[in-house]
Amino acid sequence: MNLPNKLTLLRVLLVPFVAAVLLFPRDIPHSWLIAGILFGIAAYTDRLDGKIARRDHLITDFGKFMDPLADKVLVVSILCCLIELGIAPSWCVIVIIAREFMVTSLRLVAGQKGTVIAANLWGKVKTVSQIIAIVVIMICEYLRQLSSYGYDLGVFSGSGFLDRVCPVIEYVFLLIATGLTIISGIIYLKQNWDAVKTAK
Predict the structure, then answer these.
(1) Which CATH class for the 3-197 domain?
(2) How many whole angstroms from its chain centre is CA 138?
(3) Residue 111: its pLDDT value, please?
(4) Sign of CA pseudo-dihedral 39, 12, 129, 25
(5) Which of 99, 188, 81 minimizes the C-alpha distance to 138?
(6) What is the pLDDT of residues 49-101, one digit of tens each?
(7) What beta strand segments (E) does 95-154 contain?
(8) Which are the contacts of 52, defined by CB distance < 8 A and separation ≥ 6?
(9) Do residues 85 and 166 touch, judged by C-beta distance below 8 A?
(10) Where are the domains of the chain?
């Protein structure tokens, strides 16, 4: 197995560790910081594996299949954890998951006809927006966690500022990610509608 594929697998293997840190925070001091670092490493492997594969001509069928799957597993798993924690609205996550099922099904139908549907710019924008939303949430929650530990956060301390503002910031970034997810799904469907119409 080449290096890009190992990095892709690493992204998947990091998911349960991030989820465990998020879901069992009482046992882990500074859990949001640790979860953020692990998630950041996992997200960065997405950029790194593709860059290495293209540079060293190590593109494989396994990589083509596993790389987008690893992205979906990472993002959807963490978003589900955020639902469990009462941070992410379930409807946003449902829309994101539905879009992924739709695009995956579309690719399967096209693949049966010998057509390969490659990732486009909007798909990449969608993924980046989801990752940014998760990172912003982790930063906000870590600030709230530090406040609960009694740290002086300057202008962010006192008067419940973090408790009022952080949820709004988190919701806005999730809305942006969900909107871009919907847009990218519509564009995929429009660009590949012929594969749907001719499906038997």
Answers:
(1) mainly alpha
(2) 13
(3) 67
(4) negative
(5) 81
(6) 888 888 888 888 777 778 888 889 999 999 999 999 999 999 999 999 999 88
(7) none
(8) 3, 4, 7, 58
(9) no
(10) 3-197
